[in-house]
Amino acid sequence: MRLLNAESMELESFPDPVPENVPYAILSHTWDAEEVTFTDMQDIGVASTKPGFIKILSACQKTLDHGFRYIWIDTCCIDKSSSAELSEAINRMFRWYQDSTVCLTFLADFPRNADVEAQLPLCRWFTRGWTLQELIAPKNLLFLDQEWNLIGDKYDLGEKVEAITGISRWILDGSSPLSSVPLGQRMSWAAKRNTTREEDKAYCLLGIFDVNMPMMYGEESRAFIRLQEEILRRTSDLSIFAWQSDNTSIQYRGILAQSPAEFAYCTQIELNDDQFHFRDEISLTNRGVKIQTPLQYLGDGIYIMDLHCYRESKRLGIYLRRTQDTYMRSLPHETAQARPTGTAVTLPAPTIYLLSTVDEQTSLSILSSNTSGRSIYIQLPRGNPSFRIHSVRAVPGTYWEAHDHRFSIGSLRNFVCFVRFSVTLTPSPGWTQHLHVRSEEDTASFILVCDLAGKSQARLSLYAQTGLQSSPKPERFIDPFTNIEGYGPLGDAFSLDLLRPGPVEDRRVRMIHRDPRSNYVITAAFVNPIDPPPSVFRVLVSIFPDDNDTDLGFRGLGGPVAPHDVLPLGGQARMALSTPAAP
pTM of the full predicted structure? Predict the structure, then answer.
């Protein structure tokens, strides 16, 4: 670290951090034309010809007046011709201001004896990006007018500075650490500040968020994306996603903001402090931001993700649009009213991928592919008081849209999947004409396997848990009933291949009890023709008593479905499917 000797006007090098026995002042100011650079300071004769040299002299004199010998000034203490040195300095600058003994803040547009209440908010210093960290970091900051006279320190002027910047005086005086402030609120401090270069909108905030990253001038707005990515590597604060776009015409965006200006509405954000606040891992992947969090489904592929924070007593969330196996921000100019985790309307916490960035053209292309691609709908019986369907799980989970009971597979030509579900007969009068009324519930589990091969082949098979588990299986086979988690998000190729329907499809499972009045049959069938091949396949699962094959009142697509509509019944599968159930 270089410091300017205020007496000799020479630059001297010190180890970083500077030893405690070398107190130094530091200058905070706004740049004007023809500032004195590091190269200029190699020849005082050259440096003294520049208009900015008067500022250097005045700062040195003020340093000596405070009893210090050294001062750090950003214009002349950094060799900006060295990209490595510039990058290192920017990453350390917050600490340099923090370690200074006094920060001399020169307000070039504050006249002597001006009214503080009226003039201070008008100072350009409060509008610049770099001066944000220069306000927060120093322990002792003095405001000086254009003639270098003292206006006051940041403690005396705390209320006025808070009103101008939106930064709590408890942060300004160091009573509360920066880490106690939600990320979204910290971003809002920079929302109305400007920098000469686009990249500096991100680089000037490194210290505010305690992150480091290399400088890459020329990357423009990509710098702010990189800043958010670095922040996400070390946080569980979801308020970083609470930004709002000013462009109301754009329907979809990535999950990351484009600039600090989009956090202008986050000034009053507070994190929730209940036992359910988000604390899980957030990670960056080649598919976007990976996160595990509950989602609230609204319909038509739109979800609300709870951000676990509040603004004016409103719990904030954001709208997400699912696009096959990823999500992107929907209605980015709005935030949503979120419901706390654990309410009945939220789905279990899935692992999801949020696209980091996406432009409007790309988003429309993704949605077009998603809506025009192939889908497999699985229609399960519901609404019958004599049985209930529950514990529905699907593999591969990446393509499964639980709210619609649909696999959305885009343009994939070959695809094998299954849905696991349980059927529980309930002790109710609904089946008294057909089944024996049991005194307690009876549950059995099944999987429905669907195999699409090319454009023209679509096949189904049903398996009962009792039959599958009694059949011999290779060691590598993952049992879908006992170890569905082992399939992973894309499934397991070996196990799915074994479950693939055989030459003769098994579309019927008969559950046999000792009391024949408790027997029932489950069938599966395509309810739309598959020749010519459709883009949407609809599979209907039906349940009816075994005594007379009478359907149990389930209304599927297009009305009641009778047994002859869901057959033909399959033959022998490669694994046994009909096994007597326990009485």
Answer: 0.77
